[in-house]
Amino acid sequence: LALVAACTVVTSAIIWTVLRWRAAAALRRAPVTLGGIEAVTVLGLVALLFTVFVGLQARYLFGGSDFVANTIGLTYAEYARSGFFELVAVDALGLPLVLAAHHLVTTDDQRVRQSLTGLMTLVALLLALIAVSAWYRLSLYARVFGLTEERIVAAAAIVWMGGTLLWFGVTVLRDKSVHFVSGSGVLAFAVLAALHIVNPDAWAMRTQIARAQAGHPFDAPYLKYVGADALPPLLDALPTLSPPIRCGVLAGLDQRKVVTDWRSWTVPRWNAERARIRHRADLTALREACSAR
């Protein structure tokens, strides 16, 4: 997902680099350009396509819990995932196309330039609307089932895409497109740095624990797949959970693969092992209580 989150900026960077490339002096030739009418036609069709998509999918984009409950065969997971991948698809299609049109058009006709700016603004607003829908659907999914590392990373990707659209408006739509790719790259690195700081595994586990303490179900089988960063807060909170959840957690922990190869050593695994040692007596007592149930 981190690679997916960087898809648009990488694509845009490649296209921008190619478009700014000039042939060597020995191979001089006329630069590639695009007529204003042609660019307006292409962007107009793209804007029309996105407008029709948003119009036909309006109820689906913002349907919420009632829409999921009333749609046979639709789950919250499918509803959220489709929103995320729709956003990735339209961003990967829309932004590079708009950037290419902006760079290639060389007309001085003010009416054409105004039309292009208006169409680019419309496309950006439609992309922003789809980004808001993706965020809404993901937040709905998280409210019902809680956070996981994957959901936090997907949320970060949506934040980056939304920030990229905002940066697009600040730069490209104000004829400062030379700063767009570099700014988008800086934003991508900032989002990735923030992910490392907040520690998605530990954050997701703390929210799942809070939900369990409030009486919501706890997905114990998922413990087989969580990262090592999730284990210390889980072991710290284990005695505060209800007996059925505690026994499910212990069963899930027992199914985790134990890695003993020193080449696989990491700080999170070291912290997780320290937490196991610190809570060894509690874990033994809790396992005996679960066996006696």
Order of helices and strands: HHHHHHHHHHHHHH
Quickly count the helices: 14
The total count of strands amounts to 0
Rg, alpha carbons: 25 Å
Give the terminus-to-terminus CA distance: 41 Å
Q: What does the largest sheet look like?
A: none
Instruction: Report the sheet-strand fraction.
Output: under 5%
Identify low-pLDDT runs.
Answer: 1-5, 22-30
Structural class: mainly alpha
Helix content: over 70%
Global mean pLDDT: 79
Which shape, going by the Cα principal axes? elongated
Structure description:
Helices cover 73% and strands 0% of the residues. It is an all-alpha fold and 293 residues long.
Gist?
With 293 residues, the protein is mainly alpha-helical.
Present the secondary structure layout.
Blueprint: H1 2-5, H2 7-20, H3 36-56, H4 58-61, H5 64-70, H6 76-104, H7 110-145, H8 149-171, H9 180-198, H10 200-213, H11 231-237, H12 243-254, H13 267-278, H14 280-291
Which key phrases capture this entry?
disordered N terminus; elongated; 293 residues; mainly alpha; 14 helices; 0% strand
